[in-house]
Amino acid sequence: MKQLLDTETPSREELERILDTTEAMLEISQRDIKKVPTLRGRTVINMFLEPSTRTRVSFEIAAKRLSADAINVTASGSSLSKAETLSDMARNLSAMQADVLVVRDRNAGVPAMLARHLSIPVINAGDGNHEHPTQALLDAFTIRQAFGNIEGRVVSIIGDVAHSRVARSNIHALTKLGAEVRIAGPPTMIPVGVEQFGVKPCTSIDEALDGAHVVMMLRIQMERLEGALFPSVREYASTWGLSRERLRLARPDAVVLHPGPVNRGVEIQSEVADAEPSRILDQVTNGVATRMAVLYLLTGDSQ
Amino acid sequence: MKQLLDTETPSREELERILDTTEAMLEISQRDIKKVPTLRGRTVINMFLEPSTRTRVSFEIAAKRLSADAINVTASGSSLSKAETLSDMARNLSAMQADVLVVRDRNAGVPAMLARHLSIPVINAGDGNHEHPTQALLDAFTIRQAFGNIEGRVVSIIGDVAHSRVARSNIHALTKLGAEVRIAGPPTMIPVGVEQFGVKPCTSIDEALDGAHVVMMLRIQMERLEGALFPSVREYASTWGLSRERLRLARPDAVVLHPGPVNRGVEIQSEVADAEPSRILDQVTNGVATRMAVLYLLTGDSQ
Amino acid sequence: MKQLLDTETPSREELERILDTTEAMLEISQRDIKKVPTLRGRTVINMFLEPSTRTRVSFEIAAKRLSADAINVTASGSSLSKAETLSDMARNLSAMQADVLVVRDRNAGVPAMLARHLSIPVINAGDGNHEHPTQALLDAFTIRQAFGNIEGRVVSIIGDVAHSRVARSNIHALTKLGAEVRIAGPPTMIPVGVEQFGVKPCTSIDEALDGAHVVMMLRIQMERLEGALFPSVREYASTWGLSRERLRLARPDAVVLHPGPVNRGVEIQSEVADAEPSRILDQVTNGVATRMAVLYLLTGDSQ
Fold this sequence. Notes:
The structure is a homotrimer.
Chain A: H1 12-29, E1 43-48, H2 54-65, E2 69-74, H3 83-95, E3 100-105, H4 110-117, E4 122-127, H5 133-147, E5 154-158, H6 165-176, E6 180-184, E7 200-202, H7 205-209, E8 214-217, H8 222-225, H9 233-240, H10 244-247, E9 255-257, H11 270-273, H12 280-300
Parallel strand pairs in A: 1-2, 1-3, 3-4, 5-6, 5-8, 6-7, 8-9
């Protein structure tokens, strides 16, 4: 692997190799001294052109636990404005002998565009509505952690699938890894022709939950979408939100995932988000290990 | 100690233990190679939601001199907006196996609220008008450095005591450490019933200075307060400002402190701020050592 | 050397010592593990009060490759506003036992002002229209790399010389190092009396290019200057821009430099910027090595 731009391109074996490496990295994160010299002398550029705290911090911690030098670049305080300047900027960072470029951008395709201009690996940390591959990998890892494997597990992704890079990356990753993926949400939030991706659309949350191993709730972009794609937050919560009662439709050993940040009382009730069988904080913990694995495989592997 | 949310809660022994540890840390800061491996592999999150340079840099340098990984989180470029999201964010950072959370916020009580949600130590780096405990500790350390001890020293805190988290933390710390604390300022800036904290209110700066070992001038929030709490800057400077002449009322070996940044010519004349017996830059130097001590005691001590 | 505020002050020997040290630093940057313990325990403050990404990242990478602790300070999120506060801030950072202060500011003279207040070395990372000495040093290094020496090389600096701190620093450095420096640009962009600096003004780009070893194109501040100093971008590009055709006027072994970011199609055509004999990305690579050299010579040398 030379890039991680999406989960659509890598083979099942490549995805599994990342998950296996994540296992080893998680062990490092749980040591008393959570640091190994693996990427000492490597330079990781975290270029977050869309505001972000969680994902940026997760990548920064991952780089530092591997002893890499992590350099943050944000849109504010920079001279970036146009796409052309952006690729020049990336070429410059690469010319400073950076070893890997982590990029988040509001616009789909920016990481792939930069990858075409650069000789160093590029990791997509979220690009518009396109993909967010490390999120899907940490989700897959969390599922494997809960059940021992992914093959045959029923994963229901519920919410605004059409506008979610998290959903898109998960659909590619989880179907490839052998899960049975269902999707559910208001019709305005389900992509037309989604069956072609090997997932099963459901017309109600109850249908999606029935017998599911994994319930993955998506974040609703409330500010942006209320009125446009659904009538009201209250209506959304009652029709598509996850309550403790509804969760009983899933398997008794089902787990709940959410990419965060959670809209409590909207797509998920607090009582579900904060207690068993929620794996939301495990996802965050696993996120650091997943990013350590990806940084290691893309930059440290060849030595 | 599991937290440093204020100076009101810790016992005298706990405060003295921090001061003693600061002594050792100061020695490290004066070596040619100002770095020890004590907190290697530890992750320190500096979450400064109120703009700050000095205190953030002081904590960041402190963490790095102990070989910890320091991660900065600011309000700009983050998705933080509401208190609820804030505690979710903190829980996320904690789930990334951070070892300590340093927090500054405009709102009093935010560090305590986060501490209730987290299993990792929280350090208050200033919360609204409430407390700024590391500032009081560095002030206490600077006094001990100047006089050998704190017990029985007369410390006059002059200015806007009512709206100052620095004053509040110092009152708790210094009275507990045995100092005789006086306060003085315009009546609008002195909290009602302040005597109950064991301090002596003075009605003029001259009364406060008379025989004082330590003159601690507070910063006036000029932009916010002119007209509201005092008639004019000129009036304030002449009634409550510290000039070289006025300083003669204090003991011959008195020292001058100020938490910075200084409003020159307002609460203090430049000639006083920049020369003997000002300890303002010593306070800054001691601030790094104090924060090293607190980080060490809260995160490194148990190993 | 105790400061690097400009290239006007240092002697030829001092400049050459930096270039020689850069050679060694470049070698480190090309190792598999690009890190040496030289400045371990040293604290480098990068105080970029004017928005910047490239130069800040270059200094940050340089510091980290030498194992120094790098602390970033920007204008946003800080309490800085007035020049007086600025020098207080710098004195504070110095009191935290920082070892060197790197400063960029919109205003000419700020680094020199701070240097007068501080006992630690100050490096000017660009101040208004005044100087940008590390840029000139990396340019000189790139020229030496291309030709083996600088003495006698013909360097043509083309564009808005009057408003360019890059041009000013290069004129001082390159004339001192023995180059023959020509300048060319619209009359509104050429300083009156520029001959006194030992450079030769040319009245056309063709005259400047004729027989040149080095063609250094300057960035046009389009937003700021269109209409004020030149009639139109199109007009500027055709009269003063560098095309492949025009470049043939220079020597067959000529190289092209640009400080970046490039305005493609304005001062330089993409086909010239992106291919031989452009050295633009080498400049970026050499920039890190140059900054490592300067940091080392100013802070590590005495040990």
